[in-house]
Specification:
By secondary structure, the chain is mainly alpha-helical. It is built from six helices and three strands, in the order H-H-H-E-H-H-E-E-H. It has one domain: Orthogonal Bundle (Arc Repressor Mutant, subunit A).
Length: about 150
């Protein structure tokens, strides 16, 4: 027998990005901002290897400050992607791990990170070409923006 929640739950929709309406864009944009920032991507990929303690995550991710790690973990927890477990010992032990939702996100995040690694040299070359062409422009030929 199914519960009332299961009977009223709508099936997941498979929506193309081009089908997103303006009201949905704000929600999607907020989610993509969270999961797309560099610290979230790195934390999610590290937690994909298994539960970690705070300082262990900090050591694994070079360059992240304690404050930024705290804020990012808190936001990922708020979004339901990370679970924080406190074990009452002295001192208290705090572990972080991906939730089911976070594990579901791991594949696309990992694919995006792998794509970035594979294409770093191409992107750096394109940036160098762009920067060189920008530097070669004279003040009489200002770049016209599309905005």
């Amino acid at each position: 027998m199914t519960s009332p929640q299961e009977r009223t739950r709508t099936p997941p929709r498979h929506t193309r990005v081009s089908d997103i309406h303006s009201n949905d864009c704000r929600a999607v944009s907020g989610i993509l901002n969270r999961i797309g920032d560099k610290w979230s991507v790195l934390i999610i990929t590290r937690l994909g290897e298994g539960p970690r303690r705070f300082n262990e995550i900090k050591r694994m991710i070079g360059g992240i400050s304690q404050r930024m790690l705290t804020l990012t973990l808190r936001n990922l927890e708020r979004d339901g992607l990370v679970r924080r477990t406190v074990t009452p010992t002295v001192p208290p032990r705090v572990d972080y791990e991906l939730t089911d939702l976070g594990r579901d996100l791991l594949n696309p995040i990992t694919a995006l990170a792998e794509w970035a690694i594979q294409h770093t040299s191409c992107i750096e070359a394109a940036r160098a070409r762009f920067d060189a062409s920008e530097a070669a422009e004279t003040p009489q030929q200002p770049r016209v923006s599309a905005g």
